[in-house]
Amino acid sequence: MYDKLVGLLSEGQYSAFAIAIALGVLFNASKILNFFDGVKKRRIDLLKEASSIRSLNENLKNHFEDEIEGEYFSLIHKVKMDKGLRDACIALYKKAERRLPFVHFLRAKMHLYLELSTPLQN
After folding, report:
1. Residue 35 to residue 30: CA distance in whole angstroms
2. How far apart are CA 90 and CA 73, in angstroms?
């Protein structure tokens, strides 16, 4: 298969090469997505294992726990946010008394920013 792709490139058949690559990605999309999901889940497992080591500094353990929260948030909501913005969105959602769906806060991510990383007051 690799030889055929190299042959297409060397013969100047770029459109056939692009179609072959696109079809390969299309037919293997579920495997590709499972691979990336597995990478995230392995990262979570590694972070959990590291945070359970007794000899680690508490600051480092807290950092690992924040990373675990971020990875779960990313897996569930399909949005990557840093801790401050994630906590602010959750606080705003609670402040809105859950009348506005949480997905709207996720969509507004690009338009939200925090000043001085101060937590919101309830």
Report:
1. 8
2. 11
* Residue partners of 30: CB distance under 8 A and separation at least 6: none
Q: What is the pTM of this model?
A: 0.65
Tokens of 82: 């840093």
Task: Quote the crossing angle between the two packed helices 58-77 and 29-51, to the nearest 10°.
Answer: 160
CA distance 67 to 51: 10
Place of tokens 């497992």: 45
Give me the amino acid identity at 91: A
pLDDT 10s digits, 84-99:
888 888 888 899 888 8
pLDDT in tens, 62-86: 999 999 999 999 889 988 888 888 8
Three-state secondary-structure class, residue 68: helix
Helix (H) or strand (E) segment spanning residue 20? helix 14-27
